[in-house]
Amino acid sequence: MSIVEKFTNEQKIAYFSMEIGLRDDIPTFSGGLGVLAGDTIKSAADLNLPLVAVTLISRRGYFRQVIDEKGHQTEKPVEWEPSALMTVEPDKVSIEIEGRTVYLQAWIYIVESLRGGSVPVIFLDTDLPENSPEDRELTHYLYGGDKRYRIKQEAILGIGGVRMLRRLGVEIKKYHMNEGHAAFLTLELLHKYKKRIEDVWDESHIWDIDSVKELCVFTTHTPVEAGHDRFPYDLYKTVLNDYFPQTILRKLAGDKDINMTLLGLNLSNYVNGVAKMHGEVSQGMFPGYKINSITNGVHSFTWTSEGFKKIYDKYLPGWANEPELFVRVGAIPDEEIWEAHLKAKRMLIDYVNSISDAGMDYETLTIGFARRATAYKRAALLFSDMERLKKIGTGKIQIIYAGKAHPRDEDGKRLIEQIFSLKKALKGKIRLVFIENYNMEIALKLVSGVDVWLNTPLRPLEASGTSGMKAAHNGVLNFSVLDGWWIEGHIEGYTGWSIGPAPSLIQTENNINKIDADDLYAKLENKIIPTYYNDRKTWIRMMQNAIGKNANYFNTHRMMLRYVTEAYIR
Ligand SMILES: *Cc1c(COP(=O)(O)O)cnc(C)c1O
């Protein structure tokens, strides 16, 4: 049986995502969105769901982050060879771009679950001898280039992706757009679902919008305005010419420019945000559309350290495919939980000491912060009052940071430099290290090896966040602003700690930085440090609650079952 036949035997859910993070040696992701897509696919395979995923091959990856001694980030292309991990299909499809025919081929990677399920992932590739040198680069750089490069990539993903599925003979039951990047797929579907001219009033009614809506599911991922792609109609015209009539497109994607989110919204019968609060915020941004919410999760098996896997296997057999079993975490003796944690912590500290001169130790309360370096995540909030931090933390805490800034995010790059410069200011008092080139491997080391996972986004801009869910799977306690998933996961002093007021009680931005920082310092001093050093029993109880109440729920198995019942088989 050919690899393709294996997945043309039943109708599939087609899951489209510009980035997919399955493993570090397939470097086709930049951060949370991609890792979520990878976790989604892994859970689908475990649950034996009929899913096929579509993305771009990103042959140069996102980038490898190199940081000099001043904290200045430079980006190096990642070289990797798809043929080492995937097979290429002989069938090609094409798409007209700037009047040229651009050919696409498909690399297929199969995600196999230990439980027998499998999900094929199609990586689209234009790097073919029959294409011009310029077009060969279109699937090289994830989120690279200018708007022109981006609209071409999105055309390849959406339009090329639908054509490739058809060429491979995969029958599709629903198209799930993971973020607006893939929304051009709706136009390709409209072309397929055209009505007969004799059945309509006039030509503008030829497009069978209702049938396409019935096929499409759209998930929006960010309330940050810049996160919603917009393309000018002039650009659309020079790149895609008359692929789809502008008069109709203006009704579907906005009159001013092409708003990919609006296009997704207008052509999907099911739309959702990625946490309860994010669903509400998105509803406010897009009145007139019904926006549901399905809170994100993480793939439990992927995001659990070796030590915890062992004790879960021993006390909660079957946990990886039935994370609800975490409800029985109380069956695990305290000492074994603590020992599993120490194992992960020693591994992390050894790693940090091997790549830096930080000189960290196993005993000190260790705080971790790692995610994309971008302004709204407020990576420097912990350092907003250095004197207070030193007074509270000297000899009591050590801190580990990591994260990449987008190549053109100058604010994000400055944040990395700022944290680097603080290392010296804290010297001899609080050990601080910034780990280069954050990826999935480092993420697992961090979310399992620190004691406390810090998150300080500016409300309500963190749609969900997922790294805190990974921490919870390893009994690492969240200390986070009440935003995204943490609004749902937080029980004060029980599953972790909040920072600052609930989102509904926020006043102005200036004020809020100060209010949040004050609360952060106060809780660190009066709650977290004393509990860690003087009340180990309570600490371990909280670790159990993080597992039993948070990991239990915030996983992609639960999330996928909700997509199935609410969006896919409705
Ligand atoms: C989980 C993960 C993220 C997402 O982190 P958030 O704190 O949710 O933004 C980003 N990058 C990598 C490598 C991850 O594993």
| Spatial separation of the terminal alpha carbons | 32 Å
What's the CATH topology label of the largest domain? Answer: Rossmann fold
CATH superfamily of the largest domain: Glycogen Phosphorylase B
Bound molecules: pyridoxal-5'-phosphate
Query: What class, by secondary structure content?
Result: alpha/beta
Largest sheet, strands/sense/barrel: 10 strands, mixed
Low-confidence stretches: none
Give a structural overview:
The model has no long low-confidence stretch (mean pLDDT 95). Strands 1, 2, 5, 6, 7, 8, 9, 10, 13 and 14 form a 10-stranded mixed β-sheet that branches. A 6-stranded parallel β-sheet has the order 17-16-15-18-19-20, with helices on both faces. A two-stranded antiparallel ribbon has the order 3-4. The chain folds into 2 domains: 5-197 and 204-297 and 559-568, Glycogen Phosphorylase B (Rossmann fold), CATH 3.40.50.2000; 306-554, Glycogen Phosphorylase B (Rossmann fold). By secondary structure, the chain is an alpha/beta fold. The chain has helices at residues 32-46, 133-136, 147-168, 185-192, 209-215, 233-240, 246-253, 260-266, 276-285, 306-315, 334-355, 386-393, 410-425, 440-449, 467-473, 486-489, 509-534, 536-551, 556-568, and strands at 12-17, 51-56, 64-67, 73-76, 87-88, 93-97, 100-112, 118-125, 172-178, 216-219, 230-231, 258-259, 270-273, 292-293, 365-370, 397-402, 431-435, 452-455, 477-481, 496-499. The chain contains 19 helices and 20 strands. 39% of the residues lie in helices and 17% in strands. Bound molecules: pyridoxal-5'-phosphate. Pyridoxal-5'-phosphate binds at residues 31-32, 35, 371, 438-440, 443, 465-467, 470.
